[in-house]
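[scheduler] slot 2 assigned
[scheduler] job type: sequence-to-structure, two independent chains
[scheduler] chain ordering preserved from manifest
[runner] begin chain α
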Amino acid sequence: MTSTETGFLGRLSWDALPIAGLLQDPSANEIVANAAAGVVIVGVIAVVGLLSWFRLWTPLWRDWLTSVDHKKIGIMYVVFAIVMLARGVLEGVVMRAQQAAGPGDGFLEAEHFAELFSTHGTIMIFFVAVPFVFGIANYVVPLMIGARDVAFPRLNQISLGLTVSAGMMLMVSLVVGRFSTGGWTAYPPYTGAAFNPGVGPDYWIWAIVVSGIGTTLTGINFAVTIYKMRAPGMTFMRLPMYCWTIICSSILIVFAMPPLGVAALMLAADRYLDFHFFTNDLGGNMMNYANLFWLFGHPEVYLLVLPAYGIYSEVFATFSAKRLYGYNSLVIATMSIAVLSFTVWLHHFFTMGQSALINAVFGIATMLIAIPTGVKVYDWMATLWRGRIRFSVPMLYGLAFLMLFVIGGLSGVILANPTIDYQVHNTLFLVAHFHNVLLPGVLFGLLAAYNYWFPKAFGFRLNEFWGRATVALWTIGFLLTFMPLYFVGLMGMPRRSFSYDDPSFHPFMIVAIVGALVITCALFSVLIQLWVSVRDREKTRVPVGDPWDGRTLEWSIPSPPPPYNFAIIPQVKDRDDFAAAKERGIAYPTPDAYEDIELPRNTGIGFILCVFSGVWMFALVWWIWWLAALMTVLMILAVIIWTFDDSTEFTIAAEEVRRDHEAWLSLVHSEKAVDRDYETSPENRGLARPDLVAVT
């Protein structure tokens, strides 16, 4: 179909709405599709209604949507990631339910099942893991390095806007049209115009292009922030381990995201302009796409896992009351993983017919990357050894990670052998492996960070009981859902199968759906924990700011922090500088003098580009060319006009800084320091007594 055949509004028509399919064929498949679309529509109406009812539009715009404060941007990233996590988890449950229906067709059509695994993978990688990682980093990194903000605050807001607008395209695809059936990797020919002329691949293309731009800008921002904005005295070898992992991830983003953007745009050229980059005719080569995608795709795994490694490093050190063991070796291991991650992408092609020599080289490279990962595991265990371990919620996530991630890592080493990989590559064994890496390795780390730094962000601790219940549900749900997939994979069950004939697979699929339901309970448990914590927040206030006996600079300031973070930029003299200062009894000094502090003003450019880019993507998906052209012009004009705004800073007077800081110091000196045995009690007001017994 050409654009001239589609009328004034491009490809939009009545048939593009899910309700049309339900009216024509009221089957279980259409009911599931319409239920999903209905949830999106009802959710939007509910949010708009609540904001209007409680008259929150003005504070939402003033305090959040136009803010360039790294802390608020980090919180918005995390909220967006949790919303997308809910959709991703529920789609996974529907897929497991389809397979648990047993041999036969189940209740979903094959095309709908293909859409589900395409959106599930795309959402969980690009719109849950990535924004969650950089939401945590946005909040924490400037505080850890003693900075007042990131290097480019307005660019930070634009990155958030582009990521959110791209994510919204996946939500729109539930309501208008259908998503791609080509998987989260979008391999041609399954996403080519000849095989799939619908709008699904176009939703994927533009969401990936726009979110990729936002993510690349974020990587540049954090690299510059850590390179240039560290507090005086914070040399690289005094950086918190988490900051090392973020700078490595930022480097990976800068080098790995462009190949993905190029591949997506070349695929768009094939579909929109009749190019032949990835076709079988006229000089095209589909393997070019696969190489470009995995040049991004395998560094992407470590882009996500490395920040989680950093989180676990902070958690293990804090909750065992010890200095992190093997700091230098952890730094070297982190950098080694970052470099080696670019050398292993061809192990995704072990089944595609390369020479034995090429397979052997990339198999060895894949095995080598396990060495620095093993170094990290041993360093973490050595950190725990003879520490005064507190089994708080972040530590429980860390311990679950240590046990489960090693299994996923070992299955990865097995898959590094080309002969074994050839047998199980297209089976559920591989699905079990990468979920075994991504759930304990990434999601558990992010949830640990959420519980660990939540008191810093909001001034009160999360409910401990519901936190522990959530850890248990995630862990049990993971084991029940994905461990059976190793077995059915070895038995030969293909991945991406919406149905199967072999009845021996069925019992394993029953166990998997039970696990998926437990994971659903874990998701709801996260929300219940938040609700209970907000309800009981007066009992868990930690205004002093150090509820965990923290070791790094973010714990040396109030909770929540002031807009400027630090009244006086700290002078760093040691690794774990705050812990060292507490040991010497000089953790809360009174400054000799205060200075005026300049901060960036709010701006609406990020929100404007979010809206305009969202409409632009929708117009391109549906071939509404006049609207796409209009949005292009408006985005360019918005940026040009924004550059003429010279009122970009405002000043907080030194007297105001002094008044607020001295009021906080007065609170510090009036509070009673709490031993770690009372960490979860109402007596914990954020002034921890240093745990000197186990400090090494």
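[runner] end chain α
[runner] begin chain β
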Amino acid sequence: MKLFLASAALIALPTVAQAQLLDTDWSDMDAGAPAGHADNAPAKKERTRRADVRPYIEANQVFIADLDGSDDVLTYSTLAVGVDAVVSERNAEAQVNVRYERLIGYGSRVRDQDNLSGLARGNARLGRNVSIEAGAYAGRSKIDNRIATPGTNLGRADNVSHVYSVYTGPTFTAQLDDVTVGSSLRAGYTKADNGTRGTLPAGQAAVPSFDDSVSYSALATVAMQPGRLPVGWAVSAGWNREDASQLDQRVDEKYLRADVTVPVSPTLALVGGVGYENVEISERDALRDGAGNPILTPGGRYVTDPASPRLNAYDSDGLIWDAGVLWRPSRRTSLEARYGHRYGSDTYIGSFNYAPSERMGINVSVYDTISGFGGALNRSLAGLPTQFTAIRNPLSGDLGNCAFGATGSTCFGDTLGSLRPSAFRSRGIAASMVTSSGGWDSGIAAGYNRRKLLTSALGALPGLDGLVDQNYYVAGYLGRDLDRRSRFETNVYGNLLDPGFALAADVYSLGANAAYYRQIWRGLTAGAALGIDSVKPEDADGDVTASALLGLRYSF
């Protein structure tokens, strides 16, 4: 059982960086529940079987007041339908949180809009050794991180694009004596609409946005834990590919590596790996007019020249390695940290998980990956657990940047901060904590992400080649059932974005909201919410808005 858990954790990870974190169970302390679960969690999960599907309709009235001196007050109505569903059966787990909303504006400053948002994640066991998983995301993203877009899209459509992403694929795991064999396949698709960019700061040139992409990944692993041999070992091979429509961009990553785990005590082991990788990123040029200028579509994206030769944007070919430690003092605590060389430079990866009780979980992850926009969003979806808490802004209905599981969070804000059309190397750290105690449910996530864009210096986007943008973020929620018929919730967020462009200012965003819900008759619930949001470029005036909502929801 320990070998199965270790292998399952390994092959489910979709990227090279994560695949290098070879989760091992050599320690006797790990007998029983996996880290992050209470001692009786597996048995409890086996007994808990349920399917809860709750469709609803909703009507709201929203008021917005500018507090930056303009004294403008806007109002609009929304009509929404949605469904919240949770399935937890012996051979299947899934959760769906989806909402369609029609915004009805009054006057020219708030236009009628249609918004679809949602998160879905599921896993089903098809047989003794085979399972299949899937995930989906629908929401809104900033188009350009140089424009000071409010952190909540309350009636606003400028610099906002609708984004949709799905992925699915099977996983195979088998135990052959002391050897674990595993493999996984994933395929995903991501699409962003044109949206309306808005006005760029003075001196800044527009950059076409991401359109759509198809991504694939495959991973195969053969591994043995320490026991019969004094050391554990694993051999793995992987392939990641993303094909984007904008300039026919292609990310192609292949690797082969071998890893060893050397126990030095019942709770500490040395880990390391060596291998070979080949990463190629290429694109085509844009179709150009007689003056040599790129031709644009009506939506502002480049028209790809199909006759253009492929232009090299990035090429890394050669030896990769890493080494570090794996520490497991108990089944509730694990730490893995590695330093090595990949993508042609130093790399740092690691993870820390601590679950002092079944009501609290702490997670920290250090990552280093290469992908495009679609591949990064698919990766975030794959990291979402099958049972999660989707945080929504009670005033706008938008999904928050993070969703919280039993032991940590999955955040989408780093990817959705801008719709850059190029591939990028993403490095950073993400930390989160979730708790459930004394009737209160809470979660907080914070992190830092650094993206280095990778384009051809000879193509249509030479100004993006090597550009680095950075994002610091924090998000949190707190909720409590006040009695059997009422509930209180509050959310907060904060962002500091450095767009990386010359003369482009850093952008600060802060916001908080609170909501109260009261059941007034069977499935009928009344709600009221208040919020405040602020966005400010470093060298310009900011925008501060207060908002309020009154609404009714009927759940079937």
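[runner] end chain β
[qc] chain β: The helical segments are 2-11, 16-19, 41-47, 373-382, 413-416.
[scheduler] slot 2 released
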